[in-house]
């Protein structure tokens, strides 16, 4: 598999990106020439004999190894299988070394692709596309359409090194089973799917994450924080996989910012501003006359951690409480921050401060906003404000870009009173933000 239509063979291109670059020809046309040729610019087969084209080389030998193997290029044993730790930013790369029968100029795009062993070159083979999405880090299928992250796009651009050998490093996605998984792939040269060169990548599971949770009973109606810490840095595609916090029973409470349809479960991502990286969720404990017990289960990449929790009984004379819910959504030109009150009491004013999750050149504006209706935020009512992005920044937005907001009651001075809500942008969100604004 490759990244752009000009680099993909016809069947896989049709399945992944629905197109083939101008100038590529079918096998019959190539066979009519004195020998198959390819364009160094696009990596596609061609009938032209120009300074940009070269004869398709033969592969004399190839070998695979973990990406961390320090053996010089050309020195690997001719093995066909290697084990990596899928999703690990350091140990999650598969190395493929290839020796050709002639030197290939540096940066000359090769008519070479990596695909599933079951690929027969049939256009629109979604089984192959879905299989690759399970293996390659940074490749996903959303609503039937493939999406490729930048780190994978660069890895799959097979190019010459200036010699007759070349080494390629391919990012491998984390396994979702929590166990060792084996994937069969093949290298396909010049659309020769039947003659593809087989290789196997064995994917070891990521190490377990750790969980920090309250050990004492949680006060009725109070907010308790749960945190997962991952011991290794993750590849971008794996880091975008959901971290799920699940409450064992709805009677225990609900997750802050969870949807009304699923108050006991919330999914988020990893915050790479911390070392180790972390994912957090806030639980709003139920207000019940009797104490209750249950558990919270945190899940990621096939691994689960479960911790017990206890919710203390509520005082008999407990006053109606404010129960704020914060939601961030994409709107044309920026992000809309909304708050509603599910409690029976009146909520105070809140200060909302945006914090850029990714390295964006210009921050959201304003730098802080106040949610402050004159009479307070009453039960079953809501309020919102919009943070805008400068048009020059819109081009920097990519799937996975994260924005967080710190929220604190206007009178709060203690760091513990600060809450957080955010959004991880998807393609649909970026399309909404980039839409033309009225006026």
Question: What would you note in describing this structure?
Answer:
The chain has 439 residues and is mainly beta. It folds into three domains: 57-204, Immunoglobulin-like; 208-318, Immunoglobulin-like, CATH 2.60.40; 321-439, Immunoglobulin-like (Sandwich). It is 9% helix and 37% strand. The chain is built from six helices and 27 strands. The chain has helices spanning 10-16, 27-31, 126-135, 150-155, 236-239, 427-433; strands at 37-39, 45-46, 53-55, 59-66, 81-85, 93-100, 112-116, 139-142, 145-148, 165-171, 181-189, 197-204, 210-212, 223-230, 243-247, 253-255, 265-268, 277-285, 292-300, 303-311, 324-331, 334-341, 350-356, 369-371, 382-388, 402-409, 419-424. It has a four-stranded mixed β-sheet with strand order 5-12-11-7. Strands 13-14-18-16 form a four-stranded antiparallel β-sheet, with no helix packed on it. A four-stranded antiparallel β-sheet has the order 17-15-19-20, with no helix packed on it. A hairpin with a 2-residue loop joins β8 and β9. The protein is elongated, with a radius of gyration of 26 Å. The model is unreliable at 1-34 (pLDDT under 50).
